[in-house]
Amino acid sequence: MSKHELYLYPVWLRIWHGVNAICIILLIITGISMQYGNLDYPFLPFKTSVQIHNFAGVIAAIGYVVFLVYNHFSGNGKQYVPNYRGFGGRISKQGMYYLYGYFKGEPKPFPITKENKFNPLQRFSYLTTMYVFVPIIAITGVGLLYPELIFTKIFHIGGVQLTAVLHSVMGFFISLFLIVHLYVASIGKNPLRNYKSIINGYHASDEH
Hints:
Elements: E1 5-7, H1 11-36, H2 46-74, H3 87-101, H4 120-145, E2 153-154, E3 157-158, H5 159-185, H6 193-200, E4 202-204
Antiparallel strand pairs: 1-4, 2-3
Helix pairs in contact: 1-2, 2-4, 4-5
């Protein structure tokens, strides 16, 4: 390890990240196949999509519980807690960097350190995704797997229908997060550097 490398991603986090990434990709593919697939020429047979979707969903849900436990007891959870003073201004500053600052060669407004692995925009998006979107999609997923647990009517709307819509909406937001996440991970002098980091655990500084 060089003096410009920081060990930011412990083994448990890398294993969870890999398993979770595979599950999310399978969930997105099978979810799209079930919702928009042509019955005559399906991308995947409907029954197969359901089986894969349910299996990946269960594994992802178990992984999420593991994530919460390790995140709490390892101290990694503090990385998700934002400093609310001036938070909006910092998010705007980081957003402007992503939109044009990076392309103009401007320095990162919030360099990565061991105490702050995430910039303000990452912190907000990770917090929202992991502590809002994921719990909702997991709960609605369990409801759709066991519809007898769902209220028959919610605000005069069928409980199963409302649960399915909410599940799909959360799936859309998580899919959008994945696309942005992959884009942000590719930003830097070496587009593959961040992908290497999540494999070996070390983040290499741009200051080489």
